[in-house]
What does this fold into?
Amino acid sequence: QVQLVESGGGLVQPGGSLRLSCAGSGFTLDYYAIGWFRQGPEKEREGGSCISMSDGSTYYADSVKGRFTISRDNAKNTVYLQMNNLKPEDTAVYYCAANGPGTRAQNSIVVTTCGSHGMDHWGKGTLVTVSS
It folds into this structure.
């Protein structure tokens, strides 16, 4: 059974940093494309950061590019999202999602598009609040 478990959310001041973790349970992430998405109050889900577990290729939505970094640790079956220079508008529930299993080429395509509609499995989310 595919399970994704997020952790690391919390309250942080503007300009601060947080690192979120997404651990795969019951399966190996090696053949998947993984994405982080967020949904703020009264907003649609957006802000994808995606990575291919096959080759490490990444993609970032414009809203997070330059501030967020997605990374992988295949040995730990975990994906991370390092968030720096956080702003109040980053306040949201952050979800980890997976597409796969797929080939290296398939995962690269998923990462390039990095859309929430392309994901098959979702975690329950972790809340990030940016406030002074």
Observations:
- The mean pLDDT is 95.
- The CA atoms of residues 4 and 36 lie 11 Å apart.
- The longest strand covers residues 18-25.
